[in-house]
Amino acid sequence: MTSSLPLSSRNRLYAGVAALGAAGGAWLVCASAAGSGSTICPFKLATGFACPACGSTRAVLALFEGRNPLQYNPIGLVTFAVGALALGLMLRDLATGSDRLLRTWRSAEAFARRPPVAIAGVGLLAGNWIWTLSKGL
Amino acid sequence: MEESKVDMFMMINNSNFPSMSLPSIRQRLVSMPDDRFATVQSFQFKSPTTAIIISVLIGSLGIDRFYIGDTGLGIAKLLTCGGLGIWTIVDWFLIMGLARQRNHDKFVATLI
Questions:
Q1: Cβ contacts of A112 on chain B, cutoff 8 Å
Q2: pLDDT at site A36
């Protein structure tokens, strides 16, 4: 059966990772050049409150500039680390012809779907969101 | 399976599948033994209408992706403010088709 599930095939996953990685890199460069103070987050623009990921860019930029990233959103550091790891794995796979990233992606998705993990993840995100809101990001 | 039962099933569920695949689904159901009808009836399909409502309201948190079963992409969307808002808007147009496609995949995978 040819599955049409997203990112089910190696090439589609790698294209997705490459596109997200390129967009993320471009965004970091733009945000760094533009400085802080503006947002394009639709959630924040619509409601006035920070979304669970607001402050991620500022956290990553703070890390690069040697300031304390924890005054912003620590989720940014996780996203950056996972993204960099995925890009690294992808390049390694492309060089060696392996499909390690695809297998890792599938097992990570299965892991995240397990009820205890999902509940813990939602709890962590909610706690972090409250922290974000209390910081007034 | 009886034609009338199949027609009833198709009438109730035709909006849950891609329109292109409706004839092949009907074909499969007609040639299916009667005792498997209970399995078919117990399917929980993801409604495309619910998906688009979730997508418009809280799509920037990735909940629409979680709803149709794309856990990994849901997390990615959640952690990027809905793909900086662009992915959110793209998904408003894609999510109904994706929900139908997932229903079809699940239907086919379970019956094989």
A1: 71-72, 75
A2: 61
- pLDDT-derived band at A1 (thresholds 50, 70, 90) equals very low
* CA B105 – CA A37 distance, rounded (Å): 45
How far is A61 from A114, CA to CA, in rounded Å?
33
DSSP B45-104: PPPHHHHHHHHHHHGGGTHHHHHHT-HHHHHHHHHTHHHHTHHHHHHHHHHHHHHHHHHH
pTM comes to 0.75
Distance CA A53, CA A131 (A): 12
Report helix, strand or coil for A35. coil
Residues of chain B with C-beta less than 8 angstroms from the C-beta of A19: none
Report the complex ipTM: 0.70
Separation of alpha carbons A22 and B103, rounded Å = 32
Query: pLDDT at position A8, please?
Result: 58
In a domain? residue A4: no
Nearest CA in chain A to B69: A113
Please tell me which of the candidates B61, B72, B98 has its beta carbon nearest to residue A105. B72
Q: Is B94 left (phi over 0), alpha (psi -120 to 50) or beta?
A: alpha
A3 domain-assigned = no
Dihedral over alpha carbons A121, A124, A127, A131 (to 10 degrees): -120
Q: How many domains does chain A have?
A: 1
* CA dihedral of A121, A123, A128, A132, whole degrees rounded to 10: 130
A55 pLDDT higher than 80: yes
Q: Which is nearest to A58 in space by CA: A46, A98, A44?
A: A44
**Residue A109 domain boundaries:** 10-135
